[in-house]
Write a structure and sequence with these properties.
- The chain is α/β, with parallel strands linked by helices.
- It has two domains: about 10-100 and about 190-255, Rossmann fold (3-Layer(aba) Sandwich), CATH 3.40.50; about 100-185, no CATH class.
- It has nine helices and six strands; from the N terminus they run E-H-E-E-H-H-E-H-H-H-H-E-H-E-H.
- It has helices spanning about 20-35, 65-70, 75-85, 100-125, 140-150, 155-165, 170-200, 215-225, 245-255; strands spanning about 10-15, 40-45, 50, 95-100, 210-215, 230-235.
- The chain has a six-stranded mixed sheet with strand order 3-4-2-5-1-6, with helices on both faces.
- The longest helix has 30 residues, at about 170-200.
């Protein structure tokens, strides 16, 4: 796409959870794509099939109220954009979830599992600063374990870990966290493949706009690049700290709604 003014086949908007400011940017990007190019659909993670927004459309349209809901973690940027576009008179605009339900539920459960052991594993990891002094201990292993347990890997990190796995850890607590985090990423990688399958099986007269997290966006971009498909990745600017409490509250609501113990 470099040097080209043509609209690409795909626009990947990188979502960043826990950051209300990012959700506002995502809403603005989607509204621009609708106004400038006539884009009529956005594909999103975290949902299955057509997204029903009727519960938010009761009463008078109030953008300030939508922004407050974003701050509370009740509404996403994609949903805010769809509500604004509907209010402008275009009821045909739609959000469509691209999740495979069983993979989504499994990934949520895996995330929850990591959350239950992360704090204890990180405490134990921080109390072992002299590990690298032992003969044969890789100097970067501690950093690798921490990034894995904190779920901070990129797709390239994940693939490197598959070819060079963390074979054994003396601490049972850390070993359990490593195992659970690895399962999380294995499922996340399968979700990326499912997103791509959905993305490539249908055509759009304008372009396909997708809102997914950074891990999925990078993995999808790699595949689209190899397939010689035109695309851009839009990453909203981040100027504020994330709020884990808001994200975890919404996650708990999702887990309860899906009946995940």
């Amino acid at each position: 796409m470099e040097g080209s003014r043509e609209i690409p086949d795909f626009i990947l908007i990188q979502d960043v959870h826990r950051r209300p400011e990012v959700q506002e940017h995502i809403a603005a990007l989607i509204e621009y794509a609708h106004q400038a190019w006539g884009m009529q659909e956005v594909l999103i993670e975290g949902a299955f099939g057509p997204v029903d927004l009727s519960g938010y459309e009761k009463g008078t349209f109030d953008r300030a109220r939508l922004s407050a809901w974003i701050q509370q973690g009740v509404l996403s940027g994609s949903e805010m954009a769809a509500l604004a576009i509907h209010h402008s008179g275009d009821q045909d605009f739609r959000l469509t979830g691209i999740e495979a339900p069983f993979l989504y539920r499994a990934n949520l459960k895996a995330y929850q599992d990591v959350q239950t052991v992360r704090a204890a594993a990180l405490r134990e990891l921080s109390s072992m600063p002299l590990l690298s002094a032992f003969p044969g201990f890789p100097t970067n292993l501690s950093d690798r374990i921490e990034r894995l347990i904190r779920l901070k890997l990129t797709p390239s990190d994940f693939k490197a870990g598959q070819s060079d796995p963390i074979e054994s850890v003396a601490s049972p607590v850390i070993a359990q966290a490593v195992r659970m985090a690895s399962i999380f990423y294995e499922i996340a990688d399968l979700r990326t493949a499912a997103f791509l399958e959905h993305l490539l099986e249908t055509q759009d007269p304008v372009c396909r706009v997708v809102v997914v997290g950074g891990f999925h966006a990078e993995g999808m971009a790699d595949v689209l690049r190899q397939a010689h498909r035109s695309f851009v990745v839009l990453a909203p600017q981040i100027n504020e700290a994330g709020d884990d409490r808001v994200y975890n509250d919404r996650l708990a609501q999702t887990l309860n709604a899906l009946d995940i113990p």
